[in-house]
Input
Amino acid sequence: MPLSKNDLKKFSSLDRKSKRKEHGLFIVEGRKNCEELIKSDIVIEELFVTNDAVEIFPNGNIISEKEAARLSQLKTHSSVIAIARIPKQEIDSKNNQLIMYLDDIKDPGNLGTIIRTLDWFGHTQLFCSENTVDCFNPKVVMASMGSVFRIKVHYLAFEQLCKIYPDHLSYATCLIGENINDVKIPRSAIIVMGNESNGINENIIAKCSHKISISGNGKAESLNVSTACGILINEYQRD
Output
């Protein structure tokens, strides 16, 4: 079925959060990501391929290189592009896993890597402040390498999260805090990670039970937030 001008315009607008919300759709690019999407429970509205990907994705609708370039959010377009429906994300309030809460994370690459890290360690949920980058941003989807199709990402205020999990102790990650190596984080816990430049909002820090930090011996000013997330989850799971 040919790609109409209206659909081309609609799908190419999905780089914007407002348009993703309006249409209830998001875009997925690349062979690996599309293979992971096909294996997931997410509904695929359209699967487009250029001629060089037809053998790999025989059920895809063939489009021209020009159309693929128009749809793509990358500098060099992929040979396979999917349009998927944004899933409904229900919170598992009975989940006793460690809860990660991201406050005002702006970089799509960081969020995508954090989602991928959580997936690696067997987590199923992630919680974010409402001003954190959208998890269906094309750059987040790309950086997650398919993990965003398995991790349920919820956007809500920290106060609301604490009401859902009233028995969880909360830990704010700060440059100055108790060394994570000396802390025994309980099974039911919330770890808060902050903005790449400014850290965690002071109002959230005030609501946390503890402040923790990752010790280092070098001269770097700080750790990348996605790297810090991986270290913290690994420490938590070792105990």
Residues 99-238 form a domain with the Alpha/beta knot fold (CATH 3.40.1280.10).
